[in-house]
Design brief:
- Helix 2 packs across helix 3 and helix 5 crosses helix 6.
- The chain starts with 16 loop residues before the first helix and ends in a 6-residue tail after the last helix.
- It has a three-stranded antiparallel β-sheet.
- The protein is mainly alpha-helical.
- It has six helices and three strands.
């Protein structure tokens, strides 16, 4: 599954930057140019030049040392909460263990806070 059909193929780059960037940006919202260069066995200069081209096409946002996915391409919260579940549940377990009975707690919306709320509900904490 790719972020956007325009970057699902090799995109004219013989070494697969577009598909690699797409898969990495699906898992995490940012990627490092140095890591891409290592994974794809190309120079950092080549990666930086090609990331700039992807940015000009509006497919990524260029950042210092890497790239991030455009906000418009951010997966829905319902999709994000299914990614990195073990990590999110580990965070949720740690957070819920810190909450004492009768404490007041305010949660915002988010993929990880969804897991925190589930852990708190499962532990049947007396919180507000």
């Amino acid at each position: 599954m790719c972020i956007c059909p325009q970057i699902s193929g090799s995109g004219g780059w013989g070494y697969g930057l577009a598909s690699t960037a797409a898969s990495q940006l699906l898992e995490a919202s940012t990627l490092r140019a140095s890591k891409l260069a290592t994974v794809l066995s190309v120079s950092g200069e080549t990666i930086r030049r090609d990331l700039l081209e992807l940015q000009e096409q509006g497919l990524i946002n260029r950042t210092y040392g890497g790239a991030s996915r455009p906000f418009a391409l951010e997966p829905a919260r319902s999709d994000r909460r299914r990614v990195m579940v073990p990590e999110r549940e580990a965070i949720a377990a740690a957070v819920s263990a810190m909450i004492l009975p009768k404490e007041v707690l305010m949660l915002g919306g988010g993929a990880t806070t969804y897991h925190v709320a589930r852990f708190l509900a499962a532990r049947n904490r007396d919180i507000t």
